[in-house]
Design goal:
The chain contains 10 helices and 12 strands. With about 300 residues, it is of the alpha/beta class. Helix 1 packs across helix 3 and helix 2 crosses helix 3.
């Protein structure tokens, strides 16, 4: 099998596979061991590739191996190529079985409570031959995987998106406090968040979404204090388990009140102005024909 990349039609996939392994290991002996070939044979393959493209892909000296700028570019593009090839192979299998094909969806945990189940029901009713691959991921991981053709559609908390990605806001909601069931504060006696300024808080980390984290911080700023953040996580279940064990209290999107059977309680924060938005994102130049159908159902 051969590949054209504005280079030479003599480049084979094995050359790119060897290149990727060296690029990730940055060590020819270790890469050769992983590939089950000899180090001299691997060096020859890399030399052939460099001759084909007409530039050096690695900087080498007696102690170190590193990628050149051209090598960094080829690593990124070859990864995209292999990811897309894997998707094509999976889709071929589904189509051969009579399915329409596959769509890969990433999501933050709250999307499974608020949006995804109803979306899947609508799609299954309209197009039962679509195969879904669902993966819970952080906001940034979804963005990266969509850009690298490892996901088709993502559900994230609003953040600034890089060029080439499109966004559709699909769900807006309020926040709620999460407390251990034994906590003295309840819906009946709760007044405002400033009453809890001496508490330790357990929050979604900034890795979950910088924009989301800043919005949570603005809730505390409006109440005139900076919270003591005891723990951070990117998973709601982790936050809830820590709250259940009385290691702090949390603030989460209201949709996360459903689906957990733990010794915790929720207090809606309806009077605060902050809202959080769940958005669907996808690659503008996606070649998955099923994606358009899903976006139309969402819209």
């Amino acid at each position: 099998m051969y590949i054209l990349m504005h280079m030479s039609n003599q480049i084979e996939f094995r050359h790119l596979n060897y290149f990727q392994t060296v690029a990730k290991e940055l060590h020819f002996r270790k890469a050769a061991e992983k590939l089950f070939i000899t180090q001299p044979a691997l060096s020859r393959q890399i030399k052939q590739l460099e001759e084909y493209v007409g530039v050096e892909l690695f900087k080498r000296d007696k102690r170190n191996v590193s990628l050149t700028k051209a090598g960094e570019y080829l690593l990124k593009e070859s990864q995209f190529l292999f990811d897309h090839l894997g998707f094509i192979k999976d889709n071929i299998r589904h189509i051969a079985k009579g399915d329409e094909g596959e769509i890969r969806i990433g999501f933050v945990g709250s999307a499974m409570q608020s949006v995804i189940p109803s979306l899947l029901k609508k799609i299954n009713k309209d197009s039962p031959g679509i195969h879904f691959v669902l993966t819970e991921l952080t906001n940034q991981d979804q963005v990266d995987k969509i850009r690298n053709d490892q996901l088709d559609l993502g559900f994230i908390r609003t953040m600034r998106l890089p060029e080439g990605l499109k966004k559709l806001d699909v769900f807006e909601e309020t926040f709620c406090l999460v407390l251990p069931k034994s906590h003295s504060i309840s819906s009946g006696n709760f007044k405002n968040i400033s009453d809890l300024k001496e508490e330790s808080f357990i929050l979604f980390s900034s890795q979950y979404s910088h924009g989301y984290y800043d919005k949570i911080m603005s809730i505390f700023e409006d109440q005139g204090f900076t919270p003591k953040v005891a723990h951070e996580s990117v998973h709601a279940n982790t936050i809830f388990r820590l709250v259940e064990n009385e290691l702090g209290i949390g603030i989460v999107p209201s949709s996360l009140k459903q689906g957990f059977d733990l010794n915790i309680k929720f207090i809606d924060l309806k009077k605060i102005p902050q809202r959080t938005t769940l958005s669907a994102i996808w690659k503008e130049e996606s070649r998955n024909p099923i994606l358009g159908k899903v976006i139309r159902i969402l819209g």
